[in-house]
C-alpha cells in the first residue's frame, strides 16, 4: 500500500501474475529438473509394472480357479456300452459350472470306476468348458450260475453283470460263492485262458471247490483234475496230448507226474 502526498487515501498496488518465458530459467536448471523427473519416473516405473502384473495375475487366477467362466459346461463320455453315458456322469458327480482347473481328475476317475461294468476310467480337461471321460469296460471271460441268474465275470474274477440266460459263447464256472470268492473265480478264469483250442472245444464247465481244487469237465464224461491255478500252460499242454488216451479221469495237478484212470 502507498500513501499519497497531502494525506490522501492510500493507493493500493495491483499485482499481476505473468508466466515466465522458457528463457527465464537458466538452461542448466531446466536440464537438472528434467533429469530429476526422469529419475523419479525410473524409480516408480518398476513398482507400477509390478503392481499391474500382480493385478493381471490375480484376475487371471480368479477367472481360472474361482469363476464359472472356465467351468464345466459339458461332460463327454467315450467307450460306454454296458453302462450308459448318464450313468457315468452320475457316478462322476461333477457339478455344472465347477472350475475346470480345480477338479481332481483322479478322484473323478475313481468314482466312475465304482460302476461294476467299468474296469477303469480316464478323465481329461477339454478347455475351455468341457470334461471328457474315457471308459474301459470289463471284458466278459466266463459266466457263473447264481440261483436262477448268471453272473458274467472278467479276467480278474469280478462279477459285473447279471443275466437271465447263459451266453452260449462264455465258458461256465461253478463256484459256491462267486461274489465273495473272487480269488477262486479268478483262478478258474486264468485256467480257461490257458486252455488249448482242442480243450476249449471239449470244455463243459470248470469247477472250483477249494483254493487248490480246480477241475475241468469235458464232453464225453471225462474229468481233468487241475489242482491250483499254477503252471497252467504246462498242464494244458499235457492234457491236450492225453486226450486220445483212454480213461475217464486225467490228473495233471502235478504236470510232472500225470495219472490216468
Describe this structure as you would to a colleague:
By secondary structure, the protein is of the alpha/beta class. The chain folds into three domains: 26-66; 74-137, Ubiquitin-like (UB roll), CATH 3.10.20; 142-260, Rossmann fold (3-Layer(aba) Sandwich). It has helices spanning 27-66, 85-92, 105-112, 182-194, 197-202, 232-241, and strands spanning 74-78, 118-126, 130-137, 142-146, 149-153, 159-163, 173-175, 203-210, 213-218, 222-227, 249-251, 259-260. Strands 7-8-9-10-11-12 form a six-stranded mixed beta sheet. A three-stranded mixed beta sheet has the order 1-3-2. It has a three-stranded antiparallel beta sheet with strand order 4-5-6. Strand 11 and strand 12 form a beta hairpin. The model has no long low-confidence stretch (mean pLDDT 86).
Task: Please identify the top-level CATH class of the largest domain.
Answer: Alpha Beta
Number of domains: 3
Amino- and carboxy-terminal Cα gap: 145 Å
Portion of residues within helices: 25-40%
CATH topology grouping of the largest domain: Rossmann fold
Share of residues in strands: 15-25%
Order of strands in the sheet with most strands: 7-8-9-10-11-12
Mean pLDDT: 86
Broad shape: elongated
Low-confidence segments, given as residue ranges, are: none
Q: By helix and strand content, what is the structural category?
A: alpha/beta
Q: What's the count of strands?
A: 12
Amino acid at each position: 500500500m502507498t500513501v499519497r502526498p497531502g494525506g490522501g487515501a492510500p493507493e493500493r498496488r495491483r499485482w499481476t501474475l505473468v508466466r515466465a518465458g522458457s528463457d527465464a530459467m537458466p538452461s542448466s536448471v531446466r536440464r537438472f529438473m528434467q533429469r530429476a523427473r526422469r529419475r523419479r519416473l525410473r524409480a516408480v516405473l518398476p513398482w507400477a509394472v509390478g503392481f499391474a502384473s500382480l493385478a493381471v495375475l490375480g484376475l487371471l487366477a480368479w477367472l481360472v480357479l474361482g469363476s464359472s467362466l472356465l467351468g464345466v459346461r459339458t461332460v463327454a463320455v467315450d467307450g460306454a456300452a454296458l453302462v450308459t453315458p448318464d450313468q457315468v456322469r452320475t457316478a462322476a458327480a461333477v457339478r455344472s459350472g465347477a472350475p475346470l482347473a480345480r477338479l481332481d481328475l483322479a478322484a473323478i476317475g475313481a468314482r466312475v470306476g465304482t460302476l461294476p461294468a467299468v474296469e477303469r476310467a480316464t478323465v481329461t480337461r477339454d478347455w475351455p468348458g468341457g470334461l471328457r471321460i474315457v471308459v474301459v469296460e470289463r471284458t466278459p471271460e466266463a459266466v457263473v450260475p447264481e440261483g436262477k441268474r448268471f453272473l458274467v465275470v472278467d479276467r480278474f474274477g469280478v462279477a459285473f453283470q447279471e443275466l437271465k440266460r447263459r451266453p452260449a459263447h462264455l465258458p461256465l464256472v461253478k463256484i459256491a460263492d462267486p461274489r465273495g470268492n473272487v480269488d477262486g473265480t479268478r483262478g478258474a478264469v486264468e485256467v480257461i485262458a490257458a486252455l488249448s483250442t482242442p480243450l476249449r472245444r471239449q470244455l463243459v464247465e470248470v469247477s472250483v471247490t477249494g483254493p487248490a481244487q480246480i477241475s475241468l469237465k469235458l464232453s464225453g464224461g471225462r474229468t481233468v483234475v487241475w489242482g491250483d491255478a499254477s503252471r497252467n500252460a504246462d498242464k494244458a499242454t499235457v492234457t491236450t496230448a492225453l486226450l486220445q488216451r483212454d480213461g475217464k479221469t486225467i490228473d495233471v495237478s502235478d504236470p510232472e507226474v500225470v495219472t490216468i484212470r
